[in-house]
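For the sake of clarity, the format in which proteins appear in this thesis is described at this point. Each number in the token line that follows is a code from a learned vocabulary of backbone shapes. One such record is shown here in full, so that the layout can be seen directly:
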Amino acid sequence: MEAFFSSTLGVAIAEIGDKTQLLALFLAARFAQKNAIVAGMFAATLLNHAVSAVFGVWLAQTVSPDMMKWIVGLSFIAVGLWLLLPDKADGPDSRWLKYGAFGATAVLFFLAEIGDKTQIATVLLAAKYQEMFWVVAGSILGLMLANAPVVYLGEALIKKIPAKAVRLAACALFCILGAATLAGNGISLQHSGLT
């Protein structure tokens, strides 16, 4: 369950002020079908984070435990420092809007998550815990906790959340995870549910 809670908390905090949260706000303003937007976010995140977790578990099973400890530990710290940089709001590609609330959201969220902090965090969490199901479930829940309220409550909610304080808290969380990983005896090679 540690994998689930760490993934939920880490992704939820990292997602505050992220470009996908701004995308959720844009889509909520564009489409009246809020439930379809949330369903599209869920579908895109499930696919993106499942692939990320598979890669993370594969990486952990392929690389030696000592090397994996360094890769994951230093990467957590790098993601933590990366979280200090605010995202630039690139406008969503309007050609996808013709596919409706669900289709546009699914495509745009999937594309926005490629190479995003939360996708990389999911890879690292899966590599650390090697519990693919719990990492994916936690990362999806974290992303949904951060983005679904934006769809329903909109801009008023974003204005009340201090993005700088959240980025600092997320940075601290990922740096602590990195330091704890580096201080440990390596990454345990437990079964991930893939076997």
User: Anything to note?
Assistant: The chain has one domain: 2-88+99-183. DSSP finds nine helices and no strands in the chain.
